[in-house]
Amino acid sequence: MMKIIIANWKMNPQTLREARNIFQGIKKTAKKLKKVETIICPPFAYISNLKPQIPNLKIGSQNVFYEERGAFTGEISVWMLKDLGVRYAIIGHSERRALGETNEMINKKIKTALKAGLKVIFCVGENERDFEDKYFNFIKNEIDEGLKGIPRKFFSPPTGGLIIAYEPVWAISSAKNAQPDTPESAFRMAVFIRRMLMPIIGSEPARKIPILYGGSVGPENVAGFLQDMQGALVGSKSLNPKDFGEILKIANGIK
Ligand code: PGA
């Protein structure tokens, strides 16, 4: 199965010129790789200026709005994104949750995006670890509420459009004293997520949907996470074409 590597640029870089340079640098590497799907999620402002033009490179957005059109100053609709060639949308990133996004809002966003035919990169992750494994319940609740009431047809292969990104918030590089999770514990969570998805989205889709890891991923640790997981969501290292290119090459070489 192809690995999926997602670049989340967050609110960077500060000029279109830099964005183009980073994009071209990544594209040069992605072009040569057949076994990895690269998805670049730039800020909205740059999307129309970045043209992937190769089959295994796609553009994603970092957010969407849950209403399809109308009087919502400052928001961006799924249809505008689709019109610009966007195929993926990150929804529920912990940095958006920190700004006040609730599970209910995330649920509405996922529904709207899937209905429009966007593939959704649904982010979940606990703020802290405890020793009694209570954080598993926290993740279960994020998923239950995030996917509530979404018709199963949106999850069925081949068109099914859900990807889960498990990103423990404490592991994201901008967190204080951030450290990556271990591949073993991330995989343990992926197994849990897959099992809990079965009654929600059906067993066939639950077996097949990609589950990615995110949080301080770099060239030095990505191979471990990719052994048992289907890809990675990369933040700070995705702004450096050399580091990100390394990550792509490593992903391409995993059996
Ligand atoms: P990081 O960010 O790779 O800088 O830790 C990951 C993310 O927030 O998606």
Helix proportion range: 25-40%
Number of domain units: 1
Within the largest sheet, what's the order of strands? 1-2-3-4-5-6-7-8
Strand content is 15-25%
| N-to-C CA distance | 9 Å
Helix and strand element order: EHEEHEHHEHEHHEHEH
Largest sheet: 8 strands, parallel, barrel
Q: Which value, in Å, is the CA radius of gyration?
A: 17 Å
Q: pLDDT below 50 for ≥5 consecutive residues: which ranges? A: none
Oligomer: single chain
Q: What is the residue-mean pLDDT, rounded to a whole number?
A: 96
Q: In the CATH classification, which architecture applies?
A: Alpha-Beta Barrel
Number of β-strand runs: 8
Question: What structural keywords apply?
Answer:
single chain; 255 residues; alpha/beta; TIM Barrel; 8-stranded parallel barrel; 9 helices; 8 strands; globular; binds 2-phosphoglycolic acid
